[in-house]
Design brief:
The protein is an alpha/beta fold. The chain has helices spanning 22-25, 29-32, 35-38, 86-95, 123-135, 154-166, 243-260, 266-276, 296-301, and strands at 13-14, 48-53, 71-73, 97-99, 103-106, 113-119, 140-143, 145-147, 170-174, 194-199, 216-221, 225-231, 234-240, 330-333, 340-343. The chain is built from nine helices and 15 strands. Strand 14 and strand 15 form a beta hairpin. Helix 5 packs parallel to helix 6. The termini are close together.
Length: 347
């Protein structure tokens, strides 16, 4: 199965360069999520995050020393070089360390490390990639990709997701983007996966960017995300939208928790995230925000309520009926600014 990628024709917004670094200036989520205070408790040191995406460029100035040797699935001999820049942007949002004097992106977990798995095939390749990153030490897996509900390859995802759960790995996935998608897509809608929707700088759900649905577990910033992006034209400041980036911010938050609380299993980590999230108006869970906007500082410092019942095997932690059996025959990289739509070829 081969993965073909094509831009969706939507131009990214270039950020004008001013006196202050435009990338650092654009990181509104640093203050929105109280990350500087959160870093007093954890910076994600010692945690490996598997990024299954378009690859990661380890020479990015904001990722110096943050990228482990990776692998492509299937191996086409090109290594994990990121020709599109999507996976690199995701990695920077998770583990960016900035560069120079107050320049570049500071990721949510600036002392964590990225294990890249470049996805060059369909759902089976994604399943192989999940197994590989888990076997190579990832305690968090970020899946900023998704599958079309009209196809039938969900079992390929489920095997890898079950393997991750059996090995105490937290899996975070992008919920899907409007207008390309109408509902939460696979693997975000599969059992045990943290599905993430997108909000803006005010913490408001953006229905022009993000899908909604009963599987959504958390929301995170995914609007007007500015990074130093790798593009075919070079490395430039760029502003983008998409649940890919919201998922990356949640994956970084998971890394903070796994570093501070290594004794907690994946379910307990998820419980901390959902119980401390900033609730949507009216309280409770809804289809747009899930349990609320992720709050790294609260997750690191507030003990959750005891669970109502112990964990029993691999099962959805969202309410019964939330999971929908759909497939992944068509993969796309969830970013409304530059969606990478991928169609499975025949063997």
């Amino acid at each position: 199965m081969l993965l073909s990628l094509a831009a969706n024709g939507m131009a990214a917004v270039m950020v004008a360069t001013g006196v202050a670094d435009p990338v650092r200036r654009g990181e509104y989520w640093l203050a929105q999520l109280h990350l500087e205070q959160a870093w007093q408790y954890s910076e994600g040191a010692g945690v490996v995050v598997g990024v299954i995406d378009t690859g990661v460029n380890s020479d990015h100035p904001d990722l110096a020393g943050a990228v482990l040797p990776g692998r492509a699935f299937p191996d086409l001999g090109s290594g994990t070089h990121d020709d599109w820049g999507h996976g690199t942007t995701v990695a920077v949002l998770i583990a960016g360390r900035g560069h120079g004097q107050s320049a570049g992106t500071l990721g949510v977990a600036p002392k964590t490390v990225i294990l890249p798995a470049k996805l060059a095939g369909g759902a089976q390749s994604a399943d192989d990639a999940i197994h590989w990153v888990v076997d190579h030490g990832a305690k968090v897996v970020n899946l900023s990709l998704g599958g079309d509900a009209r196809t039938d390859s969900e079992q390929a995802y489920d095997d890898g997701l079950r393997y991750a759960a059996e090995h105490d790995v937290v899996v975070v996935a992008a919920a899907g983007n409007r207008p390309h998608d109408a509902a939460v897509v696979s693997p975000a809608n599969r059992p045990g996966v943290i599905a993430v929707s997108a909000v803006d700088a005010s913490g408001t759900f953006r229905d022009d960017i993000s899908v909604q649905g009963p599987e959504v577990a958390l929301a995170a910033p995914g609007a007007d995300i500015t990074t130093l992006a790798d593009t075919p034209q070079g490395r430039v400041p760029r502003q983008e939208n998409g649940t890919s980036f919201a998922a990356a911010i949640v994956s970084g938050t998971v890394a903070l928790l796994r570093a501070k609380y290594p004794q907690l299993d994946a379910t307990a980590v998820t419980r901390r995230l959902t119980s401390t999230a900033r609730r949507p108006a009216g309280g409770g869970r809804d289809s747009r925000y899930g349990f609320g906007v992720v709050d790294p500082l609260a997750a690191l410092t507030t003990d959750p309520e005891p669970p109502a019942s112990p964990r029993t095997g691999w099962s959805p932690w969202w309410p019964a009926g939330g999971a929908v059996v759909i497939g992944g025959g068509v993969l796309c990289w969830w970013t409304s600014s530059r969606s990478r739509r991928a169609t499975r070829g025949k063997r």
